[in-house]
Amino acid sequence: MEKNSLVEKLTLQSxxxxxxxxxxxxxxxxxxxxxxxxxxxxxxxxxxxIHLFHKATKDSDWNSIQSQEKFSDADFSxxxxxxxxxxxxxxGEKYNAVVVLPLSDSSYLGxxxxxxxxxxxxxxxxxxxxxxxxxxxxxxxxxxxxxxNEKKLIxxxxxxxxxxxxxxxxxxxxSKYENQTIIFELxxxxxxxxxxxSSALISIxxxxxxxxxxxxxFPQNISPENILxxxxxxxSSFDFNNKSYRLVISEKETRKGTTSFNDLDEMLLQAVxxxxxxxxxxxxxxxxxxxxxxIEKELNLAAAIQQxxxxxxxxxxxxxxxxxxxxxSREVGGDYYDCFDLGEDKYALIxxxxxxxxxxxxxxxxxxxxxxxxxxxxxxxLTDLADKLNKLIYKASPPDKYITFSIVVLESKxxxxxxxxxxxxxxxxxxxxxxxxxxxxxxxxxxxLDLGIPYSGxxxxxxSGDKLFLYTDGIPEAMNIxxxxxxxxxxxxxxxxxxxxxxxxxxxxxxxDVKRYAGEAEQSDDITSMILKxx
Amino acid sequence: xxxxxxxxxxLQDKTLIIKTEGYINxxxxxxxxxxxxxxxxxxxxxxxxxxxxxxxxxxxSHLIEVIEKxxxxxxxxxxxxxxxxxxxxxxxxxxxxxxxxxxxxxSALK
Lengths: 535, 110
Hints:
The complex is a heterodimer. Chain A is an alpha+beta fold. Chain A folds into 3 domains: 3-148, Beta-Lactamase, CATH 3.30.450.40; 175-284, GAF domain (Beta-Lactamase), CATH 3.30.450.40; 310-534, PPM-type phosphatase domain (Phosphatase 2c, domain 1, 4-Layer Sandwich). Chain A has helices at residues 3-25, 30-45, 73-78, 124-174, 180-195, 224-228, 263-309, 358-375, 382-396, 488-498, 503-518; strands at 50-55, 62-65, 87-89, 95-102, 108-114, 197-206, 212-218, 233-240, 243-254, 257-259, 320-327, 335-343, 346-354, 403-411, 416-422, 427-430, 436-439, 442-443, 458-461, 467-471, 527-534. In chain A, strands 12, 13, 14, 15, 18 and 19 form a 6-stranded mixed sheet that branches. A 5-stranded antiparallel sheet of chain A has the order 2-1-5-4-3. In chain A, strands 6, 7, 8, 9 and 10 form a 5-stranded antiparallel sheet that branches. In chain A, helix 1 packs antiparallel against helix 2. The termini of chain A are far apart. By secondary structure, chain B is of the alpha/beta class. Chain B has one domain (5-109): Transcription Regulator spoIIAA (2-Layer Sandwich). Chain B is 39% helix and 29% strand. Chain B is built from 4 helices and 5 strands; from the N terminus they run E-E-H-E-H-E-H-E-H. In chain B, strands 1-2-3-4-5 form a 5-stranded mixed sheet. In chain B, helix 1 (26-38) packs parallel to helix 2 (57-72). Chain B starts with a strand and ends with a helix. The chains are: A alpha+beta, B alpha/beta. The interface between A and B is medium-sized, with 31 and 26 residues.
């Protein structure tokens, strides 16, 4: 062929080569690229006997592309990698040309070109065209591989951003829920996304891993055994509130199957595990806080009930001075005092102390108060009254709750005192001449037992200048920071030494003395007392 | 390993509607690709993910493959009924640069 003619023909074809390159570059996959290349070859060489092959690596087999034809070993032997040039030409053979083109991804493209439709051999123009087309394919393939790598890089970068975002969101989401099952299901869903795990499990057992409490899996239809028996699994565990929590993920997915988890996956699992623990801790602390708030509300309510029961002021008794005080400790206490005007110059002085504190103590005080209002109207003998109160309190209270109780009924005109002491600290009667009498007649505390044990009372006479002092154990048992008690002795001495003072002043000074003794020690019990002085 | 994934599909002219249920992972993603390949001439795929709340990145790579296959025929993928978490995931992974989203199948069909 004339040189000028060859150049002219190639010039005319150049536009076609450019179009071919663009078509190859637009290919969606390698298969599509080779399919398009096959069309280009067949169009250029006017031949249907052109076959393409691909060898993924140096050591792998050749695979036929876009052909249903069976190829012999002899055909494949033509595709030798050891040839010094990529193209070998043959005349009068089955194939006119054999190409083994190394590609940029270390794979190989093999081409077998048979005879043209018109039966002619490949001429110079065909040979130059083939070389140009191979260059076109190589360039397009490099572009394809670059695009593929670029897409992969972008995907991996986006995936990292997604992981970071998911990790942050997981912490936020987990903190929103109180229901543990929701927390666990959410955590499982997140950890499979973060690590590409096929499945995940949360197992909850007691601290010693003896008793299995619950197992939750993702997806839900997978058995825990299936996950735990996987050769590709990793786990993270923690203990909280006497329980062991174990998070397991299994079978890291890839497009080609499953594999083992890497260090990053383990870090992500540990991060989610820590978030689950934080969520459980927050929920626990929140519940504790709410419970504390609830108890405080109940205590406030109980305190309000009790404050309504404790008299704001005591009745005035002609010929007598009467004063009393109740200083509850920080908790709602169970001390109670009152003075009922029974009419006909009779008054009932009450001093009581419920065993224990809190709501139940306040309720028992309330019960006692109501019962006294009911029974005192009937002017019962104190022993009968005590018996009735004992039965009532016994029925109304749990076994560990009872009331120590003192009642003194004063007939103000005569100065007669009917006294009954149900397990309470003895009332102290200080005569004008300084003689101190302790009145202990009575019986067991109210509500302690219901065995019909009779109560006994005592009748005394109060004369001018005599003082009667009732109190609860919050005074003698008040402690200082060394846990030393104020003591009965110190209280009795104070009573003796200060009994001539006006009753209000006596009460105020007594409280001051007890508090001075206790110093910085917290008041552990109610301080309640009442003093009656006959003028 | 069982992965709890199911799908149902319906062909309306050249529009394929697929409703999925369960974890879109490698197996789930493959099933979606295979379902698209079963039908020739499809140029619009509506993928209702209402019952799929978890998608991992391998599942996403299959969805990208679906998008590329549809691009080859000038077709389009439209996601519907997306859970907010999945919507955020797709957004970060850049899927909405090449695929649409709609509140429901009806609005995707318009």
